[in-house]
Amino acid sequence: MSEMSYLEKLLDGAEVEWKPLREVCDFKNGFAFKSNLFKETGLPIVRITNIDGFNVNLDEVKYFSPNDYKEDISSFEVSMGDIVIAMSGATTGKVGFYKNETRCYLNQRVGKFVPKRNLLNNKYLYHFLLLNTEAIYILAGGGAQPNLSSNALMSKLLIPIPSSSNPEKSLAIQSEIVRILDKFTALTAELTAELTMRKKQYNYYRDQLLSFDEGEVEWKTLGEITRKIASGRNKTRQAEGDFPVYGSTGLLGFTNEPAYSGDLLLVARVGAYAGLVNAVSGHFDVSDNTLIIHPSDSWNSRFAFHQLTHMNLNQYAVGAGQPLITGGMLKNLKVPVPSLNEQTRIAKILDKFETITVSITEGLPREIELRQKQYEYYRDLLFSFPKPEIASY
């Protein structure tokens, strides 16, 4: 069965009407909670920073006390299953599905959708909004200071309603679309939860394996266990070439004239990423904003990578505006140096965890990316209802 015939079978001859969102859904703007009255405990407030584009994240949340307000704030409550949207700021147009049992409350510049239950399935709306994040951002004016109007959102954003003249059939079709798409999001959620667990395991074992009691192993400076620590020299690169050019955050471009080879470590030298560690191998060149560490034979390069990453080198950067780390600073840092055999053993264990939790070519991040693309493919397909021709005047 072709993809289009599946959609046609789902509709079963029903026509699709594109309606302004306000015809099938109400909208609630947030309350102006006072930042000087924020608490460390109490009732949670959903701010624009709590909306990640899929869910509402309460990891970093502010609280309030109802005793601080004379107004009736009950209408601003967010319950499990509600859909909220950021109306301004960096997250403008992003939506969040609230999955917690704890009640929370809408802050200003956060809105909540209230579907008319006899016309619109809540999760159908959610998947539709995820599909239209870019269109919503355009409604907000885009640019550096986007600002979304609830009136523009609800009147200009059109949502496809199958079999609008028969609400019961319409909701049945919407529910089937939701059932299909929820299978994909559920799988992605499971993989994401597993990734979170694996990252915690990785951090735990890394802390355990890289911690040594005093006197258990010898401590040496990086200057003693490296051949050289120096800045890269590359200032130009191109879009194509035979060898990669690396910078402080990864691949920058390519070159046909590599300056370095081997298994080396790169450390971001300046800026917000100062101290970020990357491991590279083969033949390559390195930009001039990056330090290159050449481990000696007594310091396993993979062990060195995990050790330096664990040390959080950013803490040693100096300067507020443009944090800076120098080769001289690194050479003076002392680290525990177990035997080479022990370094190799530890590196192999941590490499397995890193592959599972970090690798974008294998492991869980890759699997999550593939499942997300699969979800987006079927979401786009299932919402590909024909749109009416709009006459131009």
TrEMBL record:
<dbReference type="GO" id="GO:0009307">
    <property type="term" value="P:DNA restriction-modification system"/>
</dbReference>
<keyword id="KW-0238">DNA-binding</keyword>
<dbReference type="InterPro" id="IPR044946">
    <property type="entry name" value="Restrct_endonuc_typeI_TRD_sf"/>
</dbReference>
<dbReference type="GO" id="GO:0003677">
    <property type="term" value="F:DNA binding"/>
</dbReference>
<comment type="similarity">
    <text>Belongs to the type-I restriction system S methylase family.</text>
</comment>
<protein>
    <submittedName>
        <fullName>Restriction modification system DNA specificity domain protein</fullName>
    </submittedName>
</protein>
<feature type="domain" description="Type I restriction modification DNA specificity">
    <location>
        <begin position="16"/>
        <end position="195"/>
    </location>
</feature>
<dbReference type="InterPro" id="IPR000055">
    <property type="entry name" value="Restrct_endonuc_typeI_TRD"/>
</dbReference>
<dbReference type="Pfam" id="PF01420">
    <property type="entry name" value="Methylase_S"/>
</dbReference>
<feature type="domain" description="Type I restriction modification DNA specificity">
    <location>
        <begin position="218"/>
        <end position="369"/>
    </location>
</feature>
<dbReference type="InterPro" id="IPR051212">
    <property type="entry name" value="Type-I_RE_S_subunit"/>
</dbReference>
<keyword id="KW-0680">Restriction system</keyword>
